[in-house]
Recover the amino acids of this structure.
């Protein structure tokens, strides 16, 4: 008899579990739709909350876009710049060419140009204010100059090491390099990266607080309804679920707005940067925000909205009778 009862209980238990899961799933779907309808029923308040969060989330994206392009412009103007190696005046043309051939064999050097004294003098003559002075010269005082082009992608430390090795070579009189400028640029970019990270964290906390306060006001406005649900036996997770989805919607819409604003800024800067690149012979490239970041921002913003709603709703429901 007992075995028969146990056998009859198994299907009932399985059906009960399946029914409980279906009810849980249906309530999630209802909570998602109901929270969306609730936000749509008050468009002005929803739009203001989303706008505040969206602008807060877009600021780190804007700074990241500007910082990345400052880094890219620095790479074009600084790290890939020419290093001028002035040879001693006693070196003849064959010696200068031999030294250039030695440098071309280095892995960290992309190209080496030999500038003869005559070419150097002609370049100075074309410069404004030097033509008269050069005409009075009896002989050419300029030495051979090697214009060394480092390979792209070298760090400031690698370029600095190369410059020191060039200074130590025989026949070299002076090496002109803007390594100090590159070091300052790297330090500035490092400070900017840290500032953008801190700003992103602070604005993320601000977005979380905005959602939390909005959900808190909503729960307080429905205190009587929540009290009735608790009296008839509804659990706190059951009551809290629609508010969690409301926070998720707030965050998702705010993240999408932040991405739209960042793309608008990117489009607005494309034209001026293109004209700036033309002024530098097209050597600079304006890069946009990476696709992974544009996809991650709405997801992260939705999580922050959910987290803000979770923290506040849990605290408010603990206060409920």
């Amino acid at each position: 008899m007992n075995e028969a009862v146990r056998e009859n209980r198994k299907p009932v238990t399985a059906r009960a579990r399946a029914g409980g899961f279906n009810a849980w799933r249906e309530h999630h779907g209802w909570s998602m739709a109901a929270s969306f309808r609730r936000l749509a029923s008050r468009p002005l308040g929803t739009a203001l909350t989303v706008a505040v969060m969206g602008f807060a989330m877009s600021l780190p994206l804007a700074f990241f876009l500007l910082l990345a392009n400052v880094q890219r412009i620095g790479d074009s103007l600084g790290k890939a710049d020419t290093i001028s190696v002035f040879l001693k005046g006693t070196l003849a043309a064959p010696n200068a060419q031999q030294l250039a051939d030695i440098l071309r064999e280095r892995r960290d050097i992309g190209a080496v140009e030999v500038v003869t004294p005559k070419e150097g003098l002609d370049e100075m003559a074309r410069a404004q204010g030097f033509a008269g002075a050069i005409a009075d010269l009896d002989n050419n005082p300029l030495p051979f100059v090697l214009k060394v082009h480092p390979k792209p992608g070298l760090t400031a430390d690698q370029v600095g090491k190369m410059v020191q090795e060039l200074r130590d070579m025989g026949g070299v009189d002076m090496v002109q390099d803007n390594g100090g400028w590159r070091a300052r640029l790297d330090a500035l970019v490092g400070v900017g990266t840290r500032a953008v990270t801190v700003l992103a964290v602070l604005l993320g906390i601000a977005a979380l607080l905005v959602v939390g306060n909005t959900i808190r006001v909503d729960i307080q406005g429905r205190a009587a309804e929540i009290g009735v649900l608790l009296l008839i036996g509804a659990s706190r997770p059951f009551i809290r679920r629609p508010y969690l989805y409301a926070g998720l919607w707030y965050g998702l819409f705010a993240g999408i707005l932040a991405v739209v604003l960042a793309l608008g800024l990117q489009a607005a800067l494309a034209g001026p940067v293109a004209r700036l690149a033309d002024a530098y012979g097209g050597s600079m490239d304006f890069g946009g925000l990476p696709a992974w970041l544009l996809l991650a921002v709405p997801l992260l913003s939705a999580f922050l909205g959910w987290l803000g709603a979770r923290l506040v709703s849990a605290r408010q429901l603990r206060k409920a009778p």
About this structure: The domain at 82-177 is CATH 3.30.70.3040 (Alpha-Beta Plaits). The first strand starts at residue 83 and ends at 87. Strands lie at 83-87, 109-115, 145-150, 172-176.
